[in-house]
Write a structure and sequence with these properties.
Elements (H helix, E strand, L loop, with lengths): L1 H18 L8 E5 L5 H8 L3 E6 L2 H9 L5 E4 L13 E7 L15 H15 E11 L4 H13 L3 E7 L8 E7 L43 H13 L20
Parallel strand pairs: 1-2, 1-4, 2-3, 4-5
Antiparallel strand pairs: 5-7, 6-7
Helix pairs in contact: 1-2, 4-5
Length: 253
């Protein structure tokens, strides 16, 4: 659906932004779990080149039909990344890496498959480059498993969480550095300076202002701030947030 495509495109843009690519030259990127090549379209638009890997022949057929500009490879990344050392200037992945946590076959060991993926990815990336992997973790154990295997493989970095306080907009980006420890970018929508953006917190308790559907209660301060934040992202003029934002007015007599 067009909504899914839109979200996919936004996440691709954000992932590429988090790569912090040089602006003066085209780069070669790896797209892990490239599917029908939606992220690739954005990479091409930005003037970079890409190679996409995916395990699904059907999705790659769609990419071919769409005449995407990247090269495509049918492969299971759990078997490793089959490219020569230092070939890529960066790697992105949208909603794919969490699948490596599933044991689809008897022989599959998620920790081993994750380690194989990360260690071969580390080798295929140029020194000083980054991998930005957006993923949908099922729980904190999955996040820890994925992050631990990435670190074991030599990466530094960690989790960047965009909009950590929003049920719908919250997104996890595993931001990994090769051979240099950069500073972890800030997650979008993290307002408080004292929050630790890379510490993904999973809580079962309900947040104060959420109603049954997980949305902020209409007209509450959170709801207003989220709405203003959305409008800012759309490039609209929005008044600055102050301590008066969303404050109840006295009743008029």
């Amino acid at each position: 659906s067009s909504r899914v495509v839109e979200i996919q495109s936004q996440m691709s843009e954000r992932a590429v932004e988090l790569l912090g690519l040089p602006e003066d030259r085209p780069c070669l990127l790896l797209d892990v779990g490239c599917g029908s090549g939606l992220s690739g379209d954005y990479i091409s638009e930005e003037g970079h080149y890409w190679i996409g890997m995916d395990i699904s022949p059907a999705m790659l057929d769609v990419a071919v039909e769409r005449e995407v500009e990247g090269d495509l490879l049918l492969a299971d990344v759990g078997h490793g990344i089959p490219f020569r050392p230092g070939m890529f200037d960066g790697c992105i992945s949208i909603s794919a890496v969490q699948w490596l946590c599933n044991a689809d076959k008897k022989s599959h060991s998620p920790p081993k498959r994750l380690y194989r993926f990360f260690s071969t990815l580390y080798t295929a990336l140029a020194r000083g480059s980054r991998a930005v992997l957006q993923l949908y973790p099922e729980n904190s154990e999955q996040l820890e498993l994925i992050t631990a295997q990435a670190m074991r493989a030599g990466f530094t970095g960690g989790m960047v969480v965009d909009y950590p306080n929003s049920a719908k907009a919250k997104k996890f980006f595993l931001c990994l550095f090769v051979g240099t420890s950069g500073t972890l970018p800030k997650g979008l929508g993290t307002t408080c300076a004292n929050e630790e953006p890379h510490q993904a917190k999973f809580t079962n308790e309900r947040t104060r202002f959420r109603n049954a559907k997980g949305k902020s209660v209409k007209k509450s301060r959170d709801w207003i701030l989220e709405k203003k934040e959305r409008r800012r992202r759309q490039g609209k003029e929005v008044r600055a947030d102050t301590k008066y934002t969303g404050r109840k007015r006295r009743p008029h007599f």
